[in-house]
Amino acid sequence: MDASTTASTYRTQQIMTASPEELTMMLYNGAIRFVNESIQSLEAGNLEKSNNANIRAQNIVREFMATLDMRYDIAKNLMALYDYIEYCLIQGNAHKDKSQLEQARSMLQELRDTWAEAMKQVRLAKVVGR
Questions:
Q1: Exposed e or buried b for every residue in 40-54, given b needs 16+ CB within 10 A?
Q2: Assigned domain for 10 exists
Q3: From the record, what ranges are coiled-coil (predicted)?
Q4: pLDDT (tens digit, 9 = 90+) per residue, 7-18?
């Protein structure tokens, strides 16, 4: 087995055994990685690679939007944030505007960090027995 096959098998195994919370974290990290790739490719003048990475980030954001349970107020707030992130990604892609991409990345990082903290608090509560 070559290194790329091994890495692919490992990633597949990670995804298949991850909890929903861990999958959400993986998606946040993936979206951030794709935005970073889009920015780097834009800076390097590789517009096709920048576009492809941007589209992948948009797809993740749209998946977040599609899975929100709108019965809860927090979902409505998250929808507004995701909608704005998607807007920034689209504008950044269409106008080759690095600042829009950086805005999207910053918001995704904040959401990811908040998600990580929430996961930590839930684990702590389970340990304490709440």
A1: ebbeeeeeeebbebb
A2: no
A3: 94-121
A4: 777 667 776 778
Domains in the chain, number: 1
DSSP string covering 23-39: HHHHHHHHHHHHHHHHH
DSSP string, 70-103: TTSHHHHHHHHHHHHHHHHHHHHHHHT-HHHHHH
Q: What range defines the domain where residue 41 resides?
A: 20-128
Residues making up the chain, counted from first to last: 130
The CATH number for 108's domain is 1.20.120.340
Structural contact between residues 61 and 90, judged by C-beta atoms closer than 8 angstroms = no
As a whole number, mean pLDDT of residues 95-101 equals 98
Does residue 36 belong to any structural domain of this protein? Answer: yes
Instruction: For residues 86 and 92, give the distance between their C-alpha atoms in angstroms, rounded to a whole number.
Output: 10
